[in-house]
Amino acid sequence: MSATQKKIQQKVQKIPNKITESDAAQITLFADYLWMHDGLSKNTLASYQTDLKLFAKWLKPKKYNLLSFDDGILQSYLSERFKKKYSERSTARLLSTLRRFCGYAIDENLIDSDPTAKIALPKLSKPLPKTLSEKDIDQLLAAPNTETDIGIRDIAMIELMYASGLRVSELINIQFSELSLQQGVVRVMGKGSKERLVPFGEIALAAIERYVKTARANYLGNLSSDYLFVSSRGSKMTRQAFWYRLKYYSKLTTIKTKLSPHTLRHAFATHLLTHGADLRTLQLLLGHSDLSTTQIYTHIAKERLQQIHAMHHPRG
């Protein structure tokens, strides 16, 4: 269990005694409903529960509960959060949680109207994700020692991640049966248990083929594994291990951007857009359920195109 998960669980465990039994029961039923209908992750469900329990705790001394509050009470809560200088992002998440809960409560005939309907979500500024230049990528790909098993494995992982834009959780969970070397595609299970097919290029294909024939075979020996990427002990690679390897390689380069698995995903998206890909295609490749999530990359692409225009156009 990660440190973040432990903190969330500790928060959740401290709250129940300070809310009504009926609210505690409704939150549990709501979490079960989300799990069954949306297949949300444990972390996401825990975040929903934390927001609802904190609100229910605030409601209790005011003689309200999660099924009886109105828009005026909610406005008072939001005003108090503002005075306490809660971030806009956490308030937006809270409102999103309450809207989802009220939608569920209406569907289940627990309430007649939605008290969140007239309250607008705060407008959030979208921070531009940090990315890598194509020269940075070249440096990173040159860093692993491909004369060693660990270097052969790492270069295969980096090449595949950069070629496909996978999330790190998707990368480490690839099973051998989900990979088609002949077609150059991989089937991944994304957020919300949504499955998609993602293509990758010849360079990544060659790196994977070499890894499978050499390093993977050496690591497994007489063992077997369903997973494509394995550690030197033959167990499945972890997110932490891959992150550690990237940090190690970053020290061997002059790359100034802080390296993480997500940085590679951003680089994949940015470089595709810079070279002419459209947003709809990028949305499908990244596995975004909403195009608005993908649109953040247009800002980076525009900046890059303006720089290129200024450098190379005679009237730039």
Number of domains: 2
Mean pLDDT: 85
CATH homologous superfamily label of the largest domain:
Intergrase catalytic core
Radius of gyration: 24 Å
For this structure, the CATH topology of the largest domain is hpI Integrase, Chain A
Order of helices and strands: HHHHHHHHEEEHHHHHHH
* Residue windows where pLDDT falls under 50 for at least 5 positions: 11-15
Q: Count of helical segments?
A: 15
User: What coarse outline follows from CA principal-axis ratios?
Assistant: globular
The largest sheet has its strands arranged as 1-2-3
Q: Give the biggest sheet.
A: 3 strands, antiparallel
Helix content: 55-70%
**Gap between N and C termini:** 53 Å
The count of DSSP E runs of length 2 or more, i.e. the number of strands, is 3
Computed structural class: mainly alpha
By oligomeric state, this entry counts as: single chain
Percent of sequence in beta strands: under 5%
Assigned CATH architecture of the largest domain: Orthogonal Bundle
